[in-house]
Amino acid sequence: MCWRLLAPASQQKRVYGHQKQGAGFGHTKIQGKGLLVRGLNALAATISTPLAAPVIAATRLRGGRSGSARGAASFAREAVGTARATGCSGTLVVRADSAFYSAAFIHAVRRAGAFFSVTAQMNPHLRAAIAAIGEDAWAPIRYPRAIGDGQLRCWVSNAEVAEVKYTAFAPEGKKKGHHVTARLIVRRVRDLSRDAAQGQGEMFPAWLYHALFTDSRP
Asked: How far apart are alpha carbons 97 and 13 in whole angstroms?
């Protein structure tokens, strides 16, 4: 059985009392508009399987305007420990969004005895790795049901996927053992929005990329 431990981005719960313990001002979005509101910042992790609904495994309340990754490494260790204590004896994959893309978080997951699957943050090193992928390495895929793409602001049914070996955190990591080498899975979608907005056909292929960094088994 493959268990998935999902550690989402930190969540902010708005509060109104001026003496609410742990509350602090932070940026959030309400109906697409960025606002500075008073709230509580929390981390949450859930356990799920392909056959089971998510169950909350761990939560942590953090004071002030905490960044998403603050305390994420120790939180991941606690969440994996909770998953194992509740009987998750099979393969355990910790999934997280790009806010948790850091060497500290990934090493913590590995030390806890789990696999990681984290959305990679775009940076010059990652863009160079994607640019080096040969055209013959991309495999077309078609979604049984169209999915919404936030960047393109439209429904997407077709995409292309490629996989390469990648070493993350190399430019900034100088300490021994800081680098992480694993699988980089990249999805790309054709961007036709700019040419369409100008009322003309596609001049040359333009792509939007979404990269996933993982050490889970294929």
From this structure: 19
- From residue 132, give the alpha-carbon distance in Å to each of 82, 121, 135: 40, 17, 9
Distance between alpha carbon 123 and the CA centroid of its chain, in Å?
15
Using one digit for the tens of pLDDT, what is the confidence trace for 107-156? 999 999 999 999 999 999 999 999 999 999 999 988 887 777 666 666 77
Lookup: tokens for 192: 């036709």
146: enclosing H helix or E strand: strand 139-149
CA atoms within 13 A on the CB side of 204: 0
Could you tell me the end-to-end alpha-carbon distance of the chain, in angstroms, rounded to an integer?
Answer: 15
Domain boundaries, the chain: 1-119, 120-218
- For the 1-119 domain, the top CATH level (class) is alpha beta
pTM of this prediction exceeds 0.90: no
